[in-house]
Specification:
459 residues; mainly alpha; 77% helix; globular
Length: 459
């Protein structure tokens, strides 16, 4: 009976995570209090390393669970206090509101986003121009909206289109999109080319979200944290980042054109003509069947999109997101509580994870973990400081989460300014290095960007 209970408990612990992962986490939880009793500084760094490990293993288990256990333990054994965690959450309330309300608000504008990407795909015959259009559209949308939502919409468009032709090729409506066994050899070849075509478009859009997300204070959650620390408004943030973000955008778009032109790294696949023909037929049919109510809904969402862009400097970003929820549901006919609740399912798990981030940040502050690194960096020449901050941020962001890394480094840089180690002008330059460092090199791995992780884990 006891053995059975123990086995059942072990199976329930972190669900379907591998046994080796569970064992490693248990070792973490046992070792931390022992090390903390001997040397709190080493124990603090060990906790940070363990937390980064849980982020790097996001494909094995969502980091909220193991990371949350580590943060809970940190409070229990005295690495930080519940009051300090609360203070960190309170000081970053704007970011929590951004995630809770803006992401949910964009959920009710997905119909418009789907319409935009659909029109792009069917209206532009050149693959290179189409790739550029997808990259630019994703960059523009991510500068004002949530990158995760933009990627989710692109995936929806790609899967929807693939499903249309897959059903035609198989002549079996409702067939599993992964099962091509019943498809004729010719059609299977067309489907494979179509898959390659859609894969490259999704990657162009994914890179576009990173290129656009670095440019504005609402492009990524850490941007808002950095903008708040530097006391920059929307326009000032854009201008401060422009010397880095604009050349990077130009180089990113140039790369998009080059990989398509020279068909390297799996890019360059064209849309097969049989597929284009079927998609145009489907689009014509859909337009004929579109009701006046659906058309008005698209128009309303377009107007709300304009409001979103115009109103970002009028109030806190999260509150603008709340206004989008209210307006979009009002003019889309969504009045049921459960239908509204679905919009929050994408945002709240990451919002909870962000609360755990701030708990680990509280540990870093209380145990002065980054003080030696910051001291080392700030002893360098002012120009070298920018390079070092960018490199350290980029390296950590590519294996960890950029929100976590950005929060830690901007707090340390602000403390250095308040203590008179650096002046206000140097702090502002460091804020640019931290923002660009967390946003741009983080695309090196899926763990660095939530949108890329979502793309990788999407069925």
């Amino acid at each position: 009976m006891e053995i059975s209970f123990g086995r059942a408990l072990w199976r329930n612990f972190l669900g379907q995570s591998p046994d080796w992962y569970k064992l490693i986490l248990l070792v973490f939880l046992v070792v931390n209090p022992i090390i903390f009793s001997v040397n709190p500084f080493i124990a603090g760094w060990l906790l940070v390393a363990e937390f980064i490990f849980t982020l790097a293993m996001a494909l094995k288990c969502y980091p909220l669970l193991p990371g949350g256990l580590l943060a809970f333990e940190a409070v229990v054994i005295g690495m930080t206090s519940a009051e300090h965690v609360k203070a960190e959450l309170a000081s970053n309330l704007e970011v929590l509101l951004l995630l809770m309300f803006m992401v949910a608000g964009i959920y009710f504008m997905k119909q418009l986003l789907l319409f935009i990407f659909t029109r792009l795909l069917l209206s532009i015959p050149s693959k290179t121009v189409l790739s550029l259009a997808f990259c630019l559209a994703a960059a523009f949308l991510s500068a004002f909206l949530d990158a995760l939502t933009v990627v989710a919409v692109v995936i929806s468009v790609a899967v929807g289109f693939y499903g249309i032709y897959h059903r035609v090729a198989s002549s079996r409506p409702g067939e599993d999109l992964q099962d091509d066994s019943h498809v004729e050899a010719h059609n299977r070849e067309v489907l494979e080319q179509f898959r390659a075509f859609l894969r490259s478009l999704m990657m162009h859009a994914g890179v576009g979200t990173a290129l656009g997300g670095v440019m504005t204070m609402v492009g990524e959650p850490q941007n808002l944290i950095i903008a708040k620390a530097a006391e920059w408004h929307f326009g000032e943030f854009f201008l401060r980042m422009a010397p880095v973000s604009v050349p990077v955008l130009i180089c990113g778009l140039a790369t998009c054109i080059l990989v398509e032109k020279f068909r390297v790294f799996g890019y360059g696949a064209q849309l097969p003509e049989p597929v284009r023909s079927e998609l145009h037929k489907f689009d014509e049919q859909s337009r004929k069947q579109r009701t006046r109510q659906e058309t008005l809904r698209l128009i309303a969402q377009g107007i709300i999109g304009v409001w979103l862009i115009v109103a970002l400097h009028l109030a806190e970003v999260g509150l603008i997101g709340l206004s989008v929820i209210i307006l979009a549901t009002t003019f889309s006919g969504v009045t049921d509580e459960h239908a509204i609740g679905k919009a929050f399912t994408e945002a709240l798990p990451f919002t909870a994870l962000l609360a755990v981030f701030f708990a680990v940040v509280a540990v870093i502050i209380d145990q002065h973990l980054f003080a030696p690194i910051i001291t080392f960096v700030l002893q360098a020449a002012p120009d070298a400081q920018l390079t070092l901050f960018y490199l350290f941020n980029g390296l950590l962001s590519s294996i960890s989460d950029n929100v976590f890394v950005g929060t830690v480094y901007i707090n340390e840089a602000k403390s250095a300014m308040e203590e008179g180690i650096i002046n206000a002008g140097q702090f502002e330059l460091l804020a640019v290095a931290i923002n660009t460092g967390t946003n741009l090199p983080s695309v090196a791995t899926p763990n660095g960007q939530a949108a890329f992780l979502f793309l990788l884990t999407s069925a």
